[in-house]
Amino acid sequence: ALYKRIIIAISILIPLIVAGLFGVKIDGVDLHFLPPIYATINGVTAILLVLAFIAIRMGNKKLHRAIMVTCMALSAVFLGLYVAYHMTSESTPFGGEGPIKVIYFFILITHILLSILVVPLVLISFLRAFLGDFKNHKRLAKYVLPIWFYVAMTGVIVYLLISPYYSS
Question: Would you give the DSSP letter of residue 91?
């Protein structure tokens, strides 16, 4: 019960804090180099999610656990870098036109919405595994994995689509 309340609090606070920090601008700090780093973190996370899935399918629980802990750590690092960048830089408008603009915004919007949804799902799934409730962990993880993978991959795609429009 306490864990669930903590997960709910974290799941509400993260988007609120991130949104609030977007309104905070720190001048004089140049973190323009961060987007390719946090996009790479997203890409590595996506690859590791696939490897974790393969590990558990092969029955290697120890490797699966280690990879998933790494994914959690990478997600925390991503979040910190992402917020730091947006606190020191103006948002970059997408400069593409026509169908690519529609595609970009579809990917961006689904990425943002699912990134908010995936936080409690990942935390609940992780907690179930941590507490040894593997039956319910597996039941939830089959939904969490594709959502988390989509969020990680679309993070890379969003970066690749907007990177030509970053100012240096």
Answer: P
